[in-house]
Amino acid sequence: MGMYEDLRGKRVVITGAASGIGLATAERFLGEGARVAALDCDGAALERVLAEKPGLAGGVVADVSSPDQVRRAFEEIDQLLGGVDILISNAGISIRKPFMDIEYEQWSRVLAVNLGGMFLCSKEALKRMLPQKSGVILLTASTNGMQGHPLYADYNASKAGVILLAKTMALEFAPWIRVNAVCPGYVLTPMQMAEYTPEMIDEVNRGIPMRRHADPSEVAALFAFLASSQAAYITGQYYAIDGGETA
What we know:
Rossmann fold, 247 residues, alpha/beta, 7-stranded parallel β-sheet, 8 helices
């Protein structure tokens, strides 16, 4: 039994759904009784998730930075769900490098996935939401989009862009469609564990008031609330979920 009765039966698309925050969010919306389509660029990981989560309406393999792949993905989602009520645009990549070592190719790739992907997926979702005059779009930004962090110039710039993209869409598509951004701090995801050693994670935890990383399910809980009618008056906002780090 979910917390938010109005999410039952809602048609939900989640990008980057095969791991980390995206997977936890898919699990949460399934628990709320929503119909969930999972989108990810990693076909093998997506197949594993579909096998483990038979409640999912289906999975679509796509690179969110490709206009053609995103368009085709949403056509597949039309077949799976018959439309879109909620988009959680979450797919993102991160590469830890000093500014002077970032090649333009890497910069372009990070911006294309993290910001371009939000633009492309939002546009496809809006094509489906506007005729029905309802919908919720939630973008995964980051506390890295709120303040500077060394070694992540491309990632930080992309996430700051995501926050302003959410605010702008919220203004253009009110009052029918709500758009917000969620800004996680440190979350214990496979992406994080690939970049940080256990020693680095311990060191980070000492600097967080709550003394730990977030669990992905805690970020998923914020998405569920913001997608629900409990958040009906909330749009154009961005929410840090960071254990007090930015305080």
